[in-house]
Amino acid sequence: MSILIRKVQLNGEVRDILVEGSLIKEINADLQMAAEIIIDGSGKAALPSFFNGHTHAAMVLLRGYADDLSLSEWLNNKIWPTEARLTEEDVYWGTRLACLEMIKSGTTFFNDMYWHFHGVARAVEDSGIRAAPSAVFIDLYDKSKAAEQIALNRRLFEESKRYSNRVLFALGPHAIYTVSKESLQWARDFAAENDVFIHLHLSETEKEVEDCIRQHGKRPVEYLHDIGFLGPQVIAAHAIWLEDREIELLEEHDVKLVYNPTSNMKLASGVFPYTKITDREIAAVLGTDGCASNNNLDMLEEMKFAALLQKMNSNNPTVLSAHDVFQLATAAPARVFNINSGSIEEGKVADLILVDLSDINLVPNHQLIPNIVYSGNGGCVDTTICDGKILMQNKRVEGEEEVLERAREVAFALTAS
């Protein structure tokens, strides 16, 4: 398929963008060539589409179900008991709803940890976007459960090969307080042997740190270092309660971190130590977390909250500029997840969006990126393209009505009992 986007604003200039197959073939001022699909980009700006570095997509089914609770009460009394009733079909429709929300707000990749791997993977395939799904790995220090989880993940890894290259298999050990040392070490070895990512929660709460010190005599990052777990394949979500020595260890092992400001604020977990992280050579990206603790998947909103939280916390309005936070949702995660996108250039994968500059939130448009970050929201996205295919045009996604209806049915059936 070929797509020609005419007269769109790109980096402050009016350009034509030619997409052939999955790649951006040419960018120029006035391309005189035919294409199967012509898009009028007048009054719109082209931007790289967004990456969501940490979420639990199907938790959109639980949006608004259990708000204003502590993390432990939220998990133990509300979320985990409800999730125990989930079926693969439930997860499929929940993830389809999440993918629809992401497409409509300009996101084409998400790093996911959730139950029923194939429900997530099928939804990603059918929606047309990209993801790195991982099955939640929890053994609760039980050797028999650990054996079951290892066997399951070995099988899922082989079965994941049936999907397109838009589905990147990952391992998902939940956290140090739910996964044994032996299972974490198995995940380390399996990831290294098979070149896959390890996605886990790390130092999200002060209690997690206190419990780790009580159990192991050291802080979480030190514990993971001592058992040989840390490495460049590790993508750690939250990473809030870190001391300087732990940050040094994260840098030493090239661990990647995910900043989840909205969820952190809602659950009062703490503030990601952004300036300490970026003073080091540590890759950081942005994520929403799941919709039960956010409560949406809008990366533009996440960018704004990410920047404002750091400015307030540091009492410095220059910290985490609009341009810097935009990179945390585009170019930085493209590098982390080894995807040839994150910017609009010839030879890059055609993962991009068109933003409607006549949207009321974007008028006037003195500076595009600050305007998008501080004034915009997902509703200003007009067109979403992933892997060279149009997933949304004129704010319309094919089949969205069925997704909304089926997901609504699943959500209320799930929470009725």
Write a structural description.
It is a single chain. The protein has about 425 residues and is an alpha/beta fold. It has 2 domains: about 1-50 and about 350-400, Urease, subunit C, domain 1; about 50-335, Metal-dependent hydrolases (TIM Barrel, Alpha-Beta Barrel). It is built from 15 helices and 16 strands. It has helices at about 70-85, 90-105, 115-125, 145-160, 180-195, 205-215, 220-225, 245-250, 260-265, 275-280, 300-315, 320-330, 330-335, 370-375, 400-415, and strands at about 1-10, 15-20, 25-30, 35-40, 45-50, 50-55, 105-115, 130-135, 170-175, 195-200, 235-240, 255-260, 285, 350-355, 380-385, 390. An 8-stranded parallel β-sheet has the order 6-7-8-9-10-11-12-13. Strands 3-2-1-4 form a 4-stranded mixed β-sheet, with no helix packed on it. The chain has a 4-stranded antiparallel β-sheet with strand order 5-14-15-16, with no helix packed on it. Helix 4 (about 145-160) links the parallel strand 8 and strand 9.
Q: Characteristics of this structure?
A:
four-stranded mixed sheet, 15 helices, alpha/beta, 16 strands, TIM Barrel, eight-stranded parallel sheet, 2 domains, globular, Urease, subunit C, domain 1, 39% helix, 417 residues
